[in-house]
Write a structure and sequence with these properties.
It is built from 16 helices and 25 strands. With about 575 residues, the protein is of the alpha/beta class. The strands form five sheets. An eight-stranded parallel β-sheet has the order 7-6-5-4-3-2-1-8, with helices on one face. An eight-stranded mixed β-sheet has the order 9-12-14-15-19-25-21-22, covered by helices on one side.
């Protein structure tokens, strides 16, 4: 508790979190057209592989140019974010497929970074650090590059360790790289291969964090079992063969995720769509968390990708792929480094291209401050490991759906019509299940997630419901949650009617400070909450007042931190 009668400077620590969250280039790298680079490599770009647009367009100008992502985004938060170069940094413009896994920075796309492979990466890492970022993270194909293997001398063979990866891990150690995002590739589904990478990294690049993932569809079990069998028989993509309850993560898919927990520093819960991201991600997180109980203290953290308030509410890392929409303006010192808008930050999208983060109904690119609020909450309550903690799921399961034709999801794989996804209505870590009652707007209820951090901090988040007829809505609810005490800060995220926290030590004389997690000034809100012996009720309207929209485009949901001060202590 904050034992003072004077207003504290801020309820948020100034020291950056060391949790391994990152800004990932993938969603933006194919939408920014680098004129200088295109002119210098016109002949090669004329022959580029159309199916690898994002990979061939990842380049120095987009990232480090005058208006590049690294120079414009998140100036106040760079110290706690890796800048992750996704698919394409180590492949050429022409014939990229043969080079996936090379780990050799392509100098056509990054002409300012020359030298031997380790030196190129070291210079690149230093360039990002000079702009305030924590450093670079690197997307890694889970395979050895065929073109590189063909260049090895005949008769060369591995000794006790695979020298291909030993060499590359030594490059990372020399370059000071601290994060690998190991994704798809020829060996992506081979857990033993991934284990080998983790073990080699621990030996040859001990400062390197290893993120693994199970490569899967962006939907959980899209078909009923009979439909899935029929799709498989008709030759449909393997991504849609999962057998299980439609809309939930299948038992086999869950098993594949869980195999990776013991060998990962971070487990990414993999791709989701901009429309149904919430239920898809929630069910994956819920099932993985419940698979590892209090007696299984795994070190692995979860990365919940693009839904920041899942990360805030469940103690997960986030993988940011959103960026301000053209001509959007947000709090300039937080998101755009003093510039009043994102004008010319991104070129217009070429014909037929879809920016998945700009699609309704969630419109994630209008919600940049949710990212800010989550990252600043992580300074108070960093993500904590999968194992060694209790997880409670409600019996109630909520169902969301979206018509994939309007607007289209980024990946459909031949799917048409309405897609359904399901997840537990309530997910709680280290706290008893929350009580959730619909508010005054009807019978609907939001998804509710909550967690008690090992340091005592409590987070509660509400998340939207999605349907073709209503779009995305957050039904307001009365939420009641009980904890032993409230010595540490409380974070509340999303929209709600009221959140009531029951705990010993709360009295009618307690003093309550609250602050927008995207701001720096705490406010005494004691008179705006309901205090009783053993409980405090916070109205959702208070969170809304503390977190005003910065302009007409900002659609970020509130995120606040509160502390309680008992003058008798």
């Amino acid at each position: 508790m904050n034992h003072t009668n004077h207003r504290p400077r801020s309820l948020i620590p100034t020291k950056p979190s060391r949790s391994p969250s990152y800004f990932c280039t993938f969603n933006g790298q194919g939408y920014h057209y680098p004129r200088t680079l295109l002119a210098a490599n016109a002949e090669k770009y004329a022959r580029m592989a159309a199916h690898r647009l994002e990979a061939t367009m990842l380049n120095e100008e987009t990232l480090l140019g005058e208006r590049g992502f690294a120079r414009t985004l998140f100036p106040e938060l760079r110290g706690e974010l890796f800048f992750l170069l996704d698919d394409g940094w180590d492949v050429p413009i022409v014939g990229p497929d043969e080079y996936y896994g090379s780990c050799i920075l392509d100098t056509d796309k990054f002409p300012g970074f020359t030298g031997e492979p380790a030196e190129r990466i070291r210079k690149l890492n230093m360039a990002f650090k000079a702009l305030g970022w924590r450093g670079i993270g690197l997307w890694i194909a889970c395979q050895e590059a065929p073109a590189v293997l063909r260049q090895q001398p005949e008769g060369s063979a591995d000794g006790p360790e695979p020298q291909y990866w030993v060499e590359r891990l030594k490059w990372m150690a020399a370059a000071g790289v601290e994060y690998w995002k190991v994704d798809w590739g020829a060996r992506a589904s081979d857990a033993s291969y991934r284990r080998m990478l983790t073990e080699l990294a621990a030996k040859h690049a001990p400062g390197l964090l290893m993120e693994h993932a199970n490569v899967c569809a962006p939907f959980n079990t899209p078909f009923e079992p009979d439909e899935a069998r029929k799709a498989k028989a008709e030759g449909a993509s393997w991504l849609f063969h999962d057998l299980g309850e439609q809309g939930r993560i299948s038992p086999d898919r869950l098993d594949e995720f869980c195999k990776l927990v013991p060998i990962s520093d971070v487990l990414r819960l993999y791709d989701v769509t901009g429309q149904l991201a919430i239920p898809t991600m929630l069910d994956r997180a819920a099932q993985v968390l419940t698979a590892f109980g209090p007696d299984q203290p795994e070190r692995c953290l979860l990365n919940c990708e693009i839904v920041p308030y899942v990360g805030a509410g469940l103690g997960c890392c986030i993988g940011i792929m959103t960026h301000p929409r053209k001509q959007f303006s947000f709090h300039p010192e937080i998101v755009l480094g003093g510039r009043e808008s994102g004008e010319n930050m991104l070129a217009e999208l070429p014909g037929g291209r879809i920016d998945a983060m700009r699609l309704g109904p969630l419109f994630l690119d209008r919600r940049m401050l949710e990212i800010v609020r989550t990252l600043r909450w992580h300074r108070i309550a960093p993500p904590f490991p999968v194992g060694g903690h209790e997880t409670h799921l409600s019996d109630a399961i909520l169902t969301d759906s979206w018509d994939l034709r309007s607007p289209p999801a980024w990946y459909r794989g031949g799917l048409k019509g309405v897609m359904t996804q399901r997840a537990p209505a309530v997910i709680c870590r280290n706290v008893p299940p929350a009580s959730v009652q619909p508010g005054g707007c009807g019978p609907d209820r939001p998804y509710v997630v909550a967690s008690r951090h090992p340091n005592g901090a409590l987070a509660v988040a509400t998340l939207e419901r999605v349907s073709p007829d209503r779009g995305a809505v957050t039904p307001l609810a009365d939420i009641v949650i009980g904890v032993d005490d409230v010595q540490a800060p409380i974070g509340l995220f999303g929209s709600f009617e009221r959140v009531t926290i029951r705990a010993a030590g709360i009295t009618s004389a307690s003093r309550i400070w609250a602050q927008d997690l995207a701001g720096d000034t705490p406010v005494d809100v004691t008179a705006q909450v309901t205090l009783e012996s053993g409980s405090v009720a916070i109205p959702g309207a208070l969170a809304g007042r503390l977190c005003p929209r910065f302009n007409e485009f900002d659609d970020s949901r509130p995120g606040i931190v509160l502390t309680l001060d008992d003058p008798k202590r």
